[in-house]
Amino acid sequence: MKKNDGFETLIDNTPIDLSEFDDAFRSAATNRSDDYYSDVPDGIYDAEIRDAHLGRTRISKPMVVWRMLLTSAPEIPKLITKTRVITENTMPWLKEDLLKCGLDLARLSDLNQRVREMEGRLVRLEKKTVNGKAELYFRWPERQRGDNGLGPADHFNELDVPF
Question: What domains can be seen in the chain, in order of their start residue?
Fold first, then answer.
């Protein structure tokens, strides 16, 4: 079944064998590194993941597809799509994207059964345009303040420090 976003979705929900990437996924570090998003201004947005699934590119490479609604921008009431092609080279970015979406996997092959766990989650996105090329990035969630209402730096101000 072809979607009008230029990507193919699996018709019969046949699991994609991702086991060949398990070793690369396990050892991958994370990288804290035509305009599909032209109607979305550069900036940081909160979004809800409405759909998360595995698909294939036009040349049959496996990929993760996220469709998200920008919840902090009601003036842009459309679903936006982010994809991450799965290759040995993209493993660090894929692993980080999954963690930022709240999905911590021991093996990438578990993604077949767990990809939909990301649906309904709130995430933070950044749309950035550099040299005319727009990209959409997942951002790490904001750190929560401690029970006393103080952040890590504020905590030092409440201590009795003799100097």
Answer: 8-33+39-142 (2.40.50.140)
Q: 112 CB contacts (<8 Å, ≥6 apart)?
A: 15, 16, 18, 54
**Backbone dihedral region for residue 131 (phi beyond 0: left; psi -120 to 50: alpha; all else: beta):** left
The whole-angstrom separation of Cα 96 and Cα 119 is: 17
Q: What is the H or E stretch that residue 45 is in?
A: strand 43-56
CA distance 122 to 46: 7
- From CA 119, how far away is CA 51, in angstroms rounded? 5
How far is it, in rounded angstroms, from Cα 64 to Cα 53?
Answer: 6
CB neighbours (10 Å) of residue 95?
A: 23
Question: For the segment 39-97, what is each residue's pLDDT rounded down to a tens digit?
Answer: 889 999 999 999 999 999 989 999 999 999 999 988 886 789 999 999 999 999 999 99
Distance CA 30, CA 18 (A): 19
User: Going by C-beta distance under 8 Å and a sequence separation of 6 or more, which residues neighbour residue 114?
Assistant: 103, 105
Does the pTM exceed 0.85? Answer: no
DSSP 8-state symbol, 95:
H
- Which residue bears the tokens 């679903």? 79
